[in-house]
Amino acid sequence: MLALPLNPENVGVPTMRREDGAPVGWAVSTGYVDYPAAVAAMEARAAAIAEGTTGELVWLLEHPPLYTAGVSAKASDLIEPERFPVFESGRGGQFTYHGPGQRVAYVMLDLTRRGRDVRAFVAALEAWIIDALAAFNVTGELRDGRVGVWVERKGAGWSREDKIAAIGVKLRRWVSFHGISLNVEPDLSHFSGIVPCGQTEHGVTSLVDLGLPVTMDEADAALRASFAKVFGPVEDATAPA
Fold it and tell me: Strand, coil or helix: what is 29?
């Protein structure tokens, strides 16, 4: 794994902070946000960030049930194409599911002010999720050749690894958009209409599936605290229209 500078206030947590220390806007949408509208808003915001006319933003939301195909998606991985709407996405990765109970965080950051290092950026996103999961005593782990954050589950005579969070980002003019998704309490059966992220030998899980009665507000609080550790301070902001 790529080594990042450590945050002196939180030993062991990598950091990718903005050079001038300016806070990142933190916006939360209520209700469900349509995917095409979210993508249009992200692209507009990313363009404005690149032009220097607005600030960075993390946008938390939920989508209605849908599947998205990243740039590496294989048609054969879409098992039930009629089940939910399917959208092509410019983000990295393969097929993924979004829906109620899953916290999507769209991350629009200016990497020109954060070192212009794509590998370091992805590693920082991973560190953010892992640190947020630690707030609930969940050990998130990385696996070579598998994107996202995983948890190891064990029982009497069995063990398996399930995915709890996905990462899929895109950069344009060194501004990021798309981002991460964390399974808080989604309907896990909805993932069966695709091969999630091309992985056939592993499953998916959520905080509630792990036996943790975590609310979306509690997940948001953990994500916000951990984001500040890795990327720097945040301030309340208005969600894109």
Answer: strand
